[in-house]
């Protein structure tokens, strides 16, 4: 097992490093609200896009059924005219 060095008894940290760490922590906390709000808006936009896509698909399917119904109605009309 490698020897681990003993921690220094009297450790001083440069004031600039302390300030940098403090500012970074404040920046992260400050950006958290904006980040969570952005994720919420993105989720809402995605949900609305899915709703619109489903509505379009439903409308397309209804149009296909309508075409078949009109074709069958025309066929029945034509069969009664021939008789």
In short:
The chain is mainly α. It is 82% helix and 0% strand.
SSE layout:
Elements: H1 15-82
Task: Describe the overall structure.
There is one protein chain. By secondary structure, this protein is mainly alpha-helical. The chain has one domain. Helices cover 82% and strands 0% of the residues. It has one helix at 15-82. The longest helix has 68 residues, at 15-82. It is rod-shaped, with a radius of gyration of 35 Å. The mean pLDDT is 87.
Biggest sheet statistics: none
Average of pLDDT: 87
**What amount of the residues lies in strands?**
under 5%
**Helical content, roughly?**
over 70%
**Which parts are unreliable, with pLDDT below 50 for 5 consecutive residues or more?**
none
What oligomeric state is this?
A: single chain
Shape descriptor: rod-shaped
Q: What does the radius of gyration come to? A: 35 Å
Helix-strand pattern, N to C?
H
Which features does this protein show?
single chain, 83 residues, mainly alpha, 1 helix, 82% helix
């Amino acid at each position: 097992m490698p020897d681990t060095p003993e921690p220094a008894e009297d450790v001083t940290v440069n004031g600039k490093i302390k300030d940098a760490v403090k500012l970074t922590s404040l920046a992260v906390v400050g950006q958290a609200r904006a980040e969570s709000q952005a994720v919420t808006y993105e989720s809402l936009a995605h949900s609305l896009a899915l709703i619109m896509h489903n509505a379009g698909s439903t409308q397309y399917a209804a149009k296909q059924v309508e075409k078949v119904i009109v074709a069958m109605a025309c066929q029945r009309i034509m069969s009664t005219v021939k008789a």
